[in-house]
Automatic annotation (TrEMBL):
GO terms for biological process: aromatic amino acid family biosynthetic process; chorismate biosynthetic process; shikimate metabolic process. It holds the Pfam family Shikimate_dh_N. It comes from the Bacteria. GO terms for molecular function: NADP binding; shikimate 3-dehydrogenase (NADP+) activity. This is Shikimate dehydrogenase. Keywords: Amino-acid biosynthesis, Aromatic amino acid biosynthesis, Oxidoreductase. Pathway: Metabolic intermediate biosynthesis; chorismate biosynthesis; chorismate from D-erythrose 4-phosphate and phosphoenolpyruvate: step 4/7. Residues 11-92 form the Shikimate dehydrogenase substrate binding N-terminal domain.
Length: 296
């Protein structure tokens, strides 16, 4: 039941026909007893319209998806460090001015740590392989960089992160934005295949494998072993061809939808200033998985 006290949140983007965000947030509002509703604000003209209609409506916060993340960042008078580094935001808080936040990287990092904290331990002399150099890669690398620095606590970072992508300019931007750290290196496919035993975590950030998206897989079944963990952030389909190949070789898998789940959880906490309980997270994950299975 909604009243004049019900707070309004939502998702801003285009197209939004298949968005799962309302499932995440409205379930969390219900479980937490927070008096709010999460709506879909679908329009391809947000850059022309601006945020005034949402502010007039009293909207307290929005999730932002493609193609408006870079635009959202420019609308804020206060921005988080991740947004500033990436010049991109997936969350706008509208309570006191306009604050831009990016939870994409924190969602990915949380997914990895939930699976195995050793995969981002700076004391372990293993390598992380990041495939792709787009917005998702930037966000994930920013969060991994922060995690390595915090955990290292001014000690040597033994773990390396290797970046494999075609866009040289985008890789340069990532390196510069992170301050050209010594633990971040570019690599080539031949080197990756030769040194595959040195990797324990592979993060695939490109849209290849997504429903309706073509393209040749960057890695094939010859790469994977049971010592690898693959995190493919694509969640529709639930299992991409890359994931299927990795599973055949007994590699461990971090489900792609976990990034969607945990970045949404962080948004909920920013929206409500309340901590999500683990039993709520499990419930939302169950609903999310059921919904994704329906969309096969």
């Amino acid at each position: 039941m909604y009243s004049k006290h019900t707070e309004i949140f939502g998702i801003l983007g285009y197209p939004l026909g298949h968005t799962l965000s309302p499932w995440i947030h409205n379930t969390l509002f219900q479980l937490s007893g927070y008096d709010a509703v999460y709506l879909v604000f679908e329009n391809e003209r947000w850059k022309e319209i601006g945020l005034a209609p949402l502010l007039d409506l009293g909207v307290k916060g929005v999730s932002v998806t493609i193609p408006f993340k870079e635009w959202a960042y420019t609308q804020a008078n206060q921005v988080c460090e991740a947004s500033k580094t990436m010049a991109s935001s997936n969350t706008l808080l509208l309570r006191d001015g306009i604050e831009a936040v990016n939870t994409d990287g924190t969602g990915a990092l949380q997914s990895i740590k939930q699976h195995n904290v050793d995969l981002v331990d700076p004391r372990i002399a293993k390598n992380i392989l990041v495939l792709g150099s787009g917005g998702s890669a930037k966000g994930i690398l920013f969060s991994i960089a922060n995690e390595l620095k915090i955990q290292a606590n001014n000690r040597e970072i033994k773990r390396k992160v290797h970046l494999l992508a075609r866009n040289q300019e985008a890789m340069s931007e990532i390196e510069q934005s992170l301050g050209n750290p010594t633990w971040l290196e570019r690599t080539k496919l031949e080197q990756v295949m030769q040194n595959k035993e040195d990797y324990d975590l592979i993060i695939h950030t490109t849209p290849i494998g997504m429903k309706g998206v073509g393209g040749e897989r960057i890695l094939d079944s010859q790469f994977f072993t049971k010592k690898h963990t693959l995190f493919d952030i694509v969640y529709n389909p639930l299992e991409t061809d890359l994931v299927k190949e990795a599973k055949k070789k007994k590699a461990e898998i971090i489900p792609g939808y976990h990034m969607l789940l945990y970045q949404g959880i962080r948004q909920f906490e920013l929206f409500t200033q309340a901590k999500a309980k683990s039993k709520w997270i499990k419930k939302v994950e169950s609903i999310l998985l059921q919904e994704l299975k329906k969309r096969k």
